[in-house]
Design goal:
5-stranded antiparallel β-sheet; 4-stranded antiparallel β-sheet; 11 strands; alpha+beta; single chain
């Protein structure tokens, strides 16, 4: 009996020792105070996503154009119509380069002329040659294609050639031309004033054209001198003063043309007129309408003959 008691005691002690030291927390039977309290499981519930209201997009409304106010335009004031004819701005003079063909065709009337040499010139004679240094004077006798023929004096037979730029000829002619334009403008101004005074009287005195001046179509006819009496009468009564009958070099045949919207005739004439280089050949034409000369014009520039 005693051995059974010890056996039970040993088994009980072993159980208690296991329960105290070996049993895991929460499994202890005797020492329950050593068991850890069981934590309740917390279930995390995912919050339901908030439902957003569905917005139905309406079709885009048409964009209304923005009305932009236009600035009020002020009426343009018209310039008053002058009651009198505007004053003439004066005659139009071509540059001297145009008159001389860019210095390649200087009229013979510009020579002889004393010029200053801007470079040395070698003058040749039958017995030899001599040089005249730049800065000296010589006589320009003629020009061709931009080259001058020079002589050391007006009576010397010696000759030399230099380009125009080798002398002061251009400067001389430019000065002469500017002076001539002033004088010429005054002449033309006086001519215009005189024509204004005499035009009414001349128109009243103009007789109806005769059969010796125009034919049945109003076409000018020639006389025994091959000229046109109608045009000669126009010049003699002062319709133009720039061209005179004695300065006419040739008469061309009348050509039909339209004048002031009506059929008329144009007669070209070769003539000599006053220029900076003296009397020079040119061409003009008379316009004839209804058997009368209504105007004279230079064929090159189209300007009215004074």
């Amino acid at each position: 009996m005693k051995s059974l008691f010890y056996t039970i005691l040993i088994i009980g002690g072993a159980f208690l020792a296991y329960d105290y030291f070996g049993a895991p927390p929460g499994k202890k039977l005797v020492f329950k105070s050593l068991n850890l309290p069981v934590k309740p499981k917390v279930l995390t519930v995912k919050a339901a996503e908030e439902e957003k209201p569905v917005v139905m997009e309406s079709p885009a409304a048409p964009v209304k154009p923005v009305a932009v106010e236009k600035p009020v335009e002020k009426p343009v004031e018209k310039a008053p119509v002058p009651t009198t004819a505007p004053a003439s701005s004066g005659p139009k003079f071509e540059p001297i380069e145009a008159l001389t063909g860019n210095w390649l065709k200087i009229p013979a009337s510009a020579f002889p002329r004393e010029v200053k040499l801007l470079q040395d010139a070698m003058f040749k004679m039958s017995v030899g040659s001599s040089k005249i240094a730049a800065g000296s004077n010589a006589y320009a006798l003629a020009a061709a294609n931009g080259v001058l023929t020079l002589a050391p004096s007006a009576s010397s037979p010696a000759r030399a050639q230099l380009p125009i730029d080798g002398t002061d000829l251009k400067a001389q002619l430019n000065v002469s031309y500017e002076k001539w334009k002033i004088t010429r403008a005054e002449e033309l101004k006086a001519i215009a004033a005189k024509k204004q005074l005499t035009q009414p009287a001349a128109s009243a005195a103009e007789a109806a054209p005769s059969s010796s001046e125009v034919d049945s179509d109003g076409k000018p006819v020639r006389d025994s001198t091959n000229g046109y009496p109608l045009l000669i009468a126009s010049m003699k009564r002062g319709q133009i003063t720039e061209i005179k009958p004695e300065n006419i070099t040739n008469w061309q045949d009348p050509q039909s043309t339209v004048i002031q919207g009506k059929p008329g005739w144009a007669v070209k004439v070769g003539c000599n007129v006053k220029t900076v280089f003296g009397m020079q050949p040119t061409e003009a034409q008379a316009l004839v309408l209804n058997g009368r000369v209504v105007g004279w014009y230079y064929t090159g520039s189209g300007e009215e003959v004074p």
